[in-house]
Amino acid sequence: MPARLSPRLAAIVAALPIRPDSRVLEIGCGPGAAARAVAARLATGHILAIDRSASAVAQARAAAAAEIRSGRMSVRQVAAEDLVLGPDEEPYDLVFAVRVGALDGRHPEAGRRALRRIAMATTADARLFVDGGDPLRALEIPRP
């Protein structure tokens, strides 16, 4: 069953430059509705949905059982500022976050740490989008 999205979240997902083979990282996935909508647009790609909240991750996993079984989606409990790729995990080429304090300016130090982790978990030409634009705005991923 497709994820039911609010008009705002639907506009955000529609604005993402997703290809069928994209490797997408969602930071702060909550119950996973946006991640499921992204997974529906992937053929050979994958979305990793992360959230620091154990209850959000449990809700996302339960709601996305079919997407997880298909291999198009996985869910992990971790804060953006603590994200580390697994030993065989390929980097991501598209990152998005909606209402995440570390990336919207509310928590600048956490934001600096999160951006460093995002840089390590993404390809050299990866793009990062957050809400607050029309409907998205791009953030620079700092590269060493």
Explain this structure to me?
This protein starts with 6 loop residues before the first helix and ends in a 5-residue tail after the last strand. The chain is of the alpha/beta class. A 6-stranded mixed β-sheet has the order 3-2-1-4-5-6. Helix content is 32%, strand content 25%. It is globular. It is built from 5 helices and 6 strands.
State the separation between the terminal residues, measured CA to CA: 42 Å
Tell me the overall shape: globular
Major sheet size, sense and barrel closure: 6 strands, mixed
Estimated helix fraction: 25-40%
Oligomer state equals: single chain
Order of helical and strand elements: HEHEHHEEHEE
Beta-strand portion reads 25-35%
Strand order of the largest sheet: 3-2-1-4-5-6
Give the low-confidence spans. none
Q: What is the residue-mean pLDDT, rounded to a whole number?
A: 95
User: Radius of gyration in whole Å, from Cα?
Assistant: 14 Å
Number of strands: 6
Question: Structural class of the secondary structure composition?
Answer: alpha/beta
Number of helices: 5
